[in-house]
């Protein structure tokens, strides 16, 4: 089956975002209110210039790159809005979430477009023409102007969407459609497209029969690459913006769903469908995601993590019961959800468990059930465990990590039973504290030191134990440490280190207290 790529272009994305805020999501359906042209300005080359326009501004003759003062002189009633690329990017990502209803393979295309890999998905929507029509009609009802084209190559779909008028291009029909399009339709850098036009190569058809070697020498290899990608001769992989689920199940509802209990009941039914797929592959889910598509286009993503691989529908539904209670205030059902999808984003091998005579699965891991419930309610970082780190610096050798895998906890010995160096103190400070020490140079142990406004005289000392810096973290110039085990005249034992090698790394090493033995 040949690849089929749907390209969607939003020619007036910033203007549509503002129009939805001002006049509601159905402003396109009702018709644009009587309002002056809307433009977006930003500071470019030390001047305020137009970077985006709405359709009315384009009809009155305004252009992108035009000075804002000149544009206001042409249209005194002009509505000039500060350009907000972050808000536009968030709006584009929200539209990408909305497109998940058609395929999980959705990729961002610059600042005003999307790529959808709909290979094998079109028949679910009545064919490619019906799918394109459904996409455009739904976006129109949401107040977003869009153009869309399906073809076998991302470059061809991109070119036809922005410069052509075809909605579906059959395999093998690309060259006749590309020929009359301008060279800018090949996604070339602006300077390359301008250079081609200066020598009379204004249309893609002028390049199709031209010798390739002279083109590459004069205009660079990017020209031939983009040309081959548009013709489908060079593969162009897409990078989905979100991980593709291993398993998923969804329901398209005839009537929007609002009640949380009905959502949980539907989630349990979807979990049964997912369980059958997991059992066929002998796997259990570790990370689940519930997608709720609201009728106004907004998409909610609710994720739940399992401490052990799961394929039991009741336990999966229980995870989302806790999660929905945790995000209840942020989950606005509005007029209801029209699509509910349950996906498994990460799965692991699940060995079959022995059941008792009652036929009920053995719940031999109450810790896993507790971790799942608490983490789903309060977040994955609410439970922490002490763990050893891959570092030879004392302050980095241990720490706390979120509890995510109960099997790893049950299968590893407690920290107290692990082999620790006997020459390490019972208490190590999170941050070494500076001390004033008197010692023989270059590598002598301290004779006395002042710490926390108290003077200590050393009776015995062991060391040094040299610990080099972790240059891959701290840099190559970070000083070396020499650790000493110190006992004062009162019998108190301390762990000090000298930072910096005398004469080689520094002329005046510094001393620090890093821990106490008792």
Description:
The protein has 518 residues and is α+β, with helices and mostly antiparallel strands. Helix content is 31%, strand content 29%. The chain has helices spanning 13-23, 27-30, 55-59, 68-74, 85-98, 128-141, 154-163, 174-178, 190-198, 205-208, 212-219, 221-231, 260-281, 313-326, 366-378, 406-411, 471-474; strands spanning 5-9, 38-44, 47-53, 79-82, 106-109, 113-117, 147-151, 247-257, 283-294, 299-310, 337-349, 384-388, 398-402, 427-439, 446-451, 454-467, 481-488, 493-499, 510-516. The strands form 5 sheets. A 6-stranded antiparallel β-barrel has the order 14-15-16-17-18-19. Strands 5-6-1-7 form a 4-stranded antiparallel β-sheet. A hairpin with a 4-residue loop joins strand 17 (481-488) and strand 18. The mean pLDDT is 88.
């Amino acid at each position: 089956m040949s690849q089929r790529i749907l390209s969607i272009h939003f020619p007036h994305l910033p203007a549509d975002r503002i129009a939805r805020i001002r006049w509601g999501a159905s402003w396109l359906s009702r018709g644009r209110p009587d309002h002056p042209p809307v433009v977006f300005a930003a500071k470019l080359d030390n001047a305020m210039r137009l970077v985006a326009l709405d359709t009315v501004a384009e009809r009155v003759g305004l252009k992108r790159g035009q000075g804002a003062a000149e544009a206001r002189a042409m249209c005194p009633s002009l509505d000039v809005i500060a350009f907000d690329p972050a808000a536009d990017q968030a709006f584009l990502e929200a539209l990408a979430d909305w497109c998940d209803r058609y395929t999980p393979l959705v990729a961002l295309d610059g600042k005003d477009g999307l790529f959808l890999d709909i290979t094998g998905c079109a028949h679910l929507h009545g064919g490619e023409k019906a799918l394109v029509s459904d996409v455009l009609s739904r976006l129109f009802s949401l107040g977003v102007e869009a153009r869309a084209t399906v073809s076998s190559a991302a470059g061809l779909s991109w070119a036809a969407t922005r410069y052509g008028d075809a909605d579906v291009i059959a395999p093998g029909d690309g060259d006749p459609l590309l020929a009359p399009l301008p060279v800018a339709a090949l996604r070339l850098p602006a300077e390359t497209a301008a250079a081609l036009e200066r020598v009379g190569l204004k249309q893609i058809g002028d390049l199709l029969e031209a010798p390739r070697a002279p083109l590459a020498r004069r205009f660079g290899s990017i020209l031939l690459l983009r040309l081959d990608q548009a013709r489908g001769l060079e593969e162009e992989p897409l990078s989905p913006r979100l991980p593709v689920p291993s398993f998923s199940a969804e329901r398209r509802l005839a009537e929007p769903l609002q009640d949380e209990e009905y959502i949980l009941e539907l989630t349990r039914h979807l979990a049964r469908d997912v369980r059958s797929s997991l059992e066929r592959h002998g796997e259990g889910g570790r990370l689940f995601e519930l997608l709720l598509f609201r009728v106004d286009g907004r998409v909610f993503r609710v994720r739940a993590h399992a401490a052990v691989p799961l394929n039991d529908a009741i336990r999966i539904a229980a995870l989302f019961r806790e999660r929905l209670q945790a995000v209840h205030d942020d989950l606005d059902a509005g007029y209801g959800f029209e699509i509910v999808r349950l996906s498994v984003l990460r799965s692991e091998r699940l060995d079959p468990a022995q059941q008792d005579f009652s036929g009920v699965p053995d719940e031999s891991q109450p810790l896993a059930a507790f971790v799942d419930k608490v983490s789903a309610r309060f977040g994955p970082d609410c439970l922490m465990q002490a763990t050893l780190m891959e570092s030879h610096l004392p302050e980095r050798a241990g720490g706390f990590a979120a509890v995510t895998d109960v099997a790893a906890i049950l299968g590893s010995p407690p920290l107290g039973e692990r082999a620790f160096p006997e020459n390490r103190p019972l208490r190590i400070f999170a941050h070494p504290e500076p001390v004033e020490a008197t010692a023989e140079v270059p590598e002598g142990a301290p004779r006395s030191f002042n710490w926390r406004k108290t003077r200590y005289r050393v009776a015995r000392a062991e060391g040094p134990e040299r610990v080099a810096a972790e240059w891959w973290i701290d840099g190559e110039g970070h000083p070396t440490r020499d650790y000493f085990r110190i006992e004062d005249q009162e019998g108190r034992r301390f762990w000090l280190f000298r930072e910096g090698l005398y004469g080689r790394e520094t002329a005046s090493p510094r001393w620090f207290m890093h821990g106490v033995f008792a």
